[in-house]
Amino acid sequence: MSSSIVNLLSLALVASIANGLPQILDSSLSKRHTAVEAPLAKSNYYISFGPRPFYIINNMTASPLKTKLQSCENGPFEISTFVFGHRGGGTLQFPEETVESTMAGARMGAGVLECDVSFTGDRGLVCRHSLCDLHTTTNILLKPELAKKCTIPFTPANGTAPANALCCTSDITTAEYTSLCGKQDGFNASAKTPADYQYGTPTWRTELYDTCGTVMTLDSYITLVDSLPGYRNFTPELKTPPAQVPMPFKGYTQEQYARDMLNAFINRGIDPSRVWAQSFNPPDIYQWLKEFPAFGKQAVFLDESGDTPSTYNVSVSALAGIKAKGVNIISPPFNYLLTLTPDNKTIIPSPYALEAKRVGLDIVSWSFDRSGPLAKVLATGEYYYSSIAPALSYDGQMYNVLDVLINQVGVKGMFSDWASTVVYFANCFGLKGPVSSNYK
């Protein structure tokens, strides 16, 4: 065969392969790109939603909202600062607080990415949702040299008690922490061995990517998020130490812990306007307002004080005082913001939502797509939908819930455990997240 024929056949083969490659839309939808094309500039980061938003839309009953959401199926799509990637934003499939979850949340378009900040025994700051969850979110119990350092070492289940362990970031050093693998949060209460204890992932999540999640320090998280295309923002949460880690911890005070978290961003030259610092602990918020006003003005006051009917009323009445102390953003779970009409059929804003709006607090809520199928939420007493569960029976209603939160409650941002679910909605309605310059 002549060389010219070979060249022609090679060109044809290359064209055939290229034509068969998946087509990926850029953020402006001005043209299509094949997977062999050179990467775009940072402003044109590919957003990949996967099937979930479309599954939810297809499951909706006919309505103007469904029609609107269907009209957006081909974009344009872009990174959304309305969406805060909860524990990274990819936790339906990836271990929380890991590089993999963060990258998944970023790829799905979350404009703000979270690191829950805990401290280690040598005062290193690391990304972990609780100081004392290593036994259920990492493989620490499979590392004998570290497992023996746990606050409560593993004990197997017996005839009278379930399996037990309690392992805290403060039990180990930062170097030891970074040797761990992140895993899906869960445990097997019937376990006889540490290996058996590793199981227990909720059935509505997946263990497909539960291999060895890459854990992060606060500093490596800053490096990762700052390197991502699309100019992402940060939302670090200062975790309140549990009773098993009394403060001060070996002389390390809560006040210094709160300073160290924000100083990590200052030392890296991160503009305060990009940092949405969070805490459930009111003194942390008030300290930031006083000592770090550029960060404090947009600090996110996390509120879980209203989980019972009596405490809920107290939490509503406290909102005016919180605003009076200089707080601009309140962040409750979204069940606090919603209630039902007397016939249990229509979702409407709650007294909490109305009061927050009345006193001038912006709302960033949590956490969307952190639950199983909506058909089961009433029977299981699922937390996030607890205030509206009688009205729910199919997954398409997720977008009806989100619609009320956005267009009636007026939330300024939403944490999501699967970022694409909310990013799609935010893109369709042109939603923008909170803006630093709006806060004084």
What does this 3D model show about the protein?
This protein has 440 residues and is an alpha/beta fold. It has a domain at 80-122 and 217-438: Phosphatidylinositol (PI) phosphodiesterase (TIM Barrel, Alpha-Beta Barrel), CATH 3.20.20.190. Helix content is 34%, strand content 15%. It is built from 17 helices and 17 strands. It has helices at 3-20, 52-58, 64-70, 99-107, 134-137, 144-147, 174-177, 194-197, 218-227, 254-267, 282-291, 293-296, 309-324, 351-359, 377-380, 397-409, 419-429; strands at 23-25, 32-34, 80-85, 110-119, 125-127, 152-155, 164-166, 181-182, 213-214, 233-238, 278-279, 300-302, 329-331, 338-340, 347-349, 362-368, 413-416. The strands form five sheets. It has an eight-stranded parallel barrel, surrounded by six helices. A hairpin with an 8-residue loop joins strand 6 and strand 7 (164-166). The longest helix is centred in the N-terminal third of the chain and has 18 residues, at 3-20. The chain is globular, with a radius of gyration of 23 Å. It starts with a helix and ends in an 11-residue tail after the last helix. One of its GO terms (molecular function) is glycerophosphodiester phosphodiesterase activity. Keywords: Glycerol metabolism, Hydrolase, Signal. Belongs to the glycerophosphoryl diester phosphodiesterase family. One of its GO terms (biological process) is glycerol metabolic process. It is an enzyme of class 3 (hydrolase).
